[in-house]
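so my prof wants the structure for this chain in the tokens format not the other one, which i didnt know existed until like an hour ago. anyway here's the sequence
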Amino acid sequence: MSRFYLNIIRCKTFEALNGIFCLTFYICRVRIIGLKYWLFGFILIPGFLFSQQTQKYNSIYEKYNKAEELYAHLQYGAAKKEFRDFINICNNPNDPLYQKALYYEGVSALELYNSDAIPLLMEYNRVYPENIHRNLISFKIGRYFFNDETYDDAQLWFEELTAADIDAKYREEYHFKLGYSALQNENKELAIKSFRENLNGKSQYAAPSKYFFAHLCYERGSYQLALEQFLELEKNVNYCGIVPYYVVQIYHKQENHDAVISYAPTVLACKLINHEADVNHIIGHAHYKKGNYQEATDYLIKHARKSKLTRDDAYELGYSYFSLKDYENAINFLDEVARFDDSLGQIAMYQIAESYLFSEKLLPARSAFESASEMTAIPKIKEDALYNFAVISFEIDINPYDESVRAFENYLERYPNSPRKKDVYQYLINVYSSTSNYKKAIESLNKLSNLDVRLKRVYQTISFNHGVELFSKRRFNSSIKAFADVSIHPIDPELVAISKYWMADAYYRLKKYRESISYYKDFISSPASNSFSEKVDAYYNMGYAYKNREEFTRASENFRIYIQSNPDD
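here's what i got, hopefully its the right format
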């Protein structure tokens, strides 16, 4: 019995040492037969199980801890393997570490761009719909697609979230990557909205967000808002090579020419901009608009050396040279513009004509004015060009009747109410007079109202010359009418007087002696007749007129006066 109780005591002591585990034992009947005996046996299951379970527990969770450590050190491939081993061994979906391992396995796969990454994480969300990582998973998948430049998928995943769903440390990254994805997908409204959220940010995403926000504002024409953001990036080393160019462009588009002239040369000086030719163009344009034509040509020529000029550029250069009286260079650049029949082409052609005119090259000036007059875009220039073409044609005396008269008559036909009407008629009168086309000259004069003294005198002279011309052609009736016109504007009394003599002579030749005698008398009675030798002839002719009327007494009187006035005859 003593050995039995000893064994009981040992068992109790062992039970005490092993805590709360149950002692299972049984007592075997002890039978002693000679040297043989039965011992009571027992199975100390609690102690054995305790040590085995502790070993197993420690082994499994050491694997989890190892996986987590590898993940923390960014060793995602090794970490993923350890997490999977832990999941397989643990095999307890309710174990919190099992759930975490599933999450980290998916994230590790995502970091490795493994094809199973997204299925793993989506399965995790499906099995554990209330998990605390749901929003972070959407963010990480969005980031995964963003880094893969699959921006349509990235945008879809980012749009699963709101800013409130994102931990603060990821929020600026979220706004930037959503904005950039939207920008790549041509959703510019969403892009600008997302980038705007980072304008006051401090992270690495603040500056690129500000840049893209400013760029989008620039694209949509919100230049002042874009300018404010670009100026904040002006000194940023990542953007100093491009932002100043945007600033110059904005000042240019705002037509802030003073700002361009002040700011843009400093951009050229820094040598960081790859748009030197364009900046020179913008500066030149600003000086052109300000009327600084020397500076305009300096910068625009630099632009022209590296870039093909547009028509507008060529015009600005040409006009700047024109304003500087450098007519040769002006013509060279304006000629490129004047090849097209539009408003700019017509202006350029007119200024080419003026350049030749101011250079005293009348023939090419005349040709250029004619070309400008044939263009239709700007009626006022068309009118001026036609007038100048006619004037130069008259001045250089090239086929004056065929050219200048045609041009002047064409001008009057097109512009009957022109303020130059009087000048045109004066030119026409001169042309007609120089070509003895007195009839046309009179017609032109008759179209003028309120003739000044000079034109009245011209009217008299042309009428008289016209009368003489007609008389010499024996067109006596027509000559009488022409001589009568001399008295319409009786500025020169001598012309009035001598025209009476010619009228009398014309009537005489028409055998209209009574009218002839009347005009001879008018001539003789005029004080101005004393200046003409024809006065004596008038008595002689009047004597024959009386004779032909059989008024012999009066005829005799006039012959007597004639003889007395010419004693030698």
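also thought this was worth mentioning. Residues 1-57 have pLDDT under 50 and may be disordered.
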